[in-house]
TrEMBL record:
Gene Ontology molecular function terms on file: catalytic activity
Name of one Pfam family that matches: DFP
Biological processes annotated in GO: coenzyme A biosynthetic process
Entry coiled-coil feature ranges: none
Source organism phylogeny: Bacteria, Pseudomonadati, Verrucomicrobiota, Verrucomicrobiia, Verrucomicrobiales
Name of the protein: Phosphopantothenoylcysteine decarboxylase
InterPro entries, A to Z: CoaB-like_sf, DNA/pantothenate-metab_flavo_C
Organism: Sulfuriroseicoccus oceanibius
Domain DNA/pantothenate metabolism flavoprotein C-terminal: residue ranges: 2-209
């Protein structure tokens, strides 16, 4: 099967030297790509700005912003028969309304406001308008009411599975090699596990593309 995986954060440019981003390291998405290759699948990995080596056998497309990531996902769906899409990236929800062409200067300002506008929800666009009919897997990084928010995203974004992780706990999740996840299926199935992102990735791949 050919899998599409998104990973990492996005950078939303404020000016040529500044951006808005988040703490995602990309490690979980890269671990999923590696585990999918190990399970005999083909993988196109669409990666935001991260400093991680490309797992052997993976086709990698590097992108910067949420808009770039949306376009790369759309192109990949058009170019390949994707059977399963795992959208693991921590995509920025908002982006500056305008990007300054030159570095913004502080002189003469006693306050600074940046107007933000919403980005497109890639996962929420997969069924419609992107027309994806394969197995759709989302992630939900939450700090409270993890399973409530995650199951809401499962339904609202028309996923087959959602991987929920609690990012409020120190030492797991964002930027760590370890994670604790609960995988919810639209059929009501559910399992939880903690451990290395590599081991969890193997279990997630077995569940969603096994
Ligand atoms: N996602 C996406 N495109 C976006 C925002 C989110 O594809 N513009 C995907 C993420 O990759 C993840 C899922 O949607 O698979 C859930 O992301 P999350 O940030 O947890 O949910 P949101 O719907 O953005 O809601 P909120 O941030 O308010 O919790
Ligand atoms: Ca979000």
């Amino acid at each position: 099967m050919h899998l599409l995986i998104t990973a990492g954060p996005t950078h939303e440019a404020i000016d040529p030297v500044r951006f808005i981003s988040n703490r995602s390291s990309g490690k979980m998405g890269f671990a999923l790509a590696e585990a999918a290759i190990a399970a005999g699948h083909e993988v196109t990995l669409i990666a935001g700005p991260v400093q991680l080596p490309t797992p052997e056998g993976v086709t990698r497309i590097d992108v910067t912003s949420a808009a770039d990531m949306f376009d790369a996902v759309e192109r990949t769906l058009n170019d390949h028969p994707i059977g399963c899409a795992i959208l693991c990236a921590a995509v920025a929800d908002f982006t500056p309304a305008t990007t300054a062409g030159q570095k913004i200067k502080k002189t003469g300002k006693d306050k600074m406001t940046i107007e933000l506008v919403p980005t497109k929800d890639i996962l929420g666009s997969m069924r419609d308008p992107l027309g994806f009919n394969g197995t759709l897997v989302g992630f939900a990084a939450e700090t409270t009411d993890v399973l409530t928010y995650a199951s809401d995203k499962l339904t609202r974004k028309r996923c087959d599975f959602i991987v929920a992780n609690d990012v409020s706990q120190p030492g797991i999740g964002f930027d760590s090699n370890d994670n604790a996840v609960t995988v919810l299926g639209k059929d009501g199935s559910q399992w939880s596990a903690s451990g290395s992102k590599r081991d969890l990735a193997t279990r997630v791949i077995a569940t969603v593309a096994g």
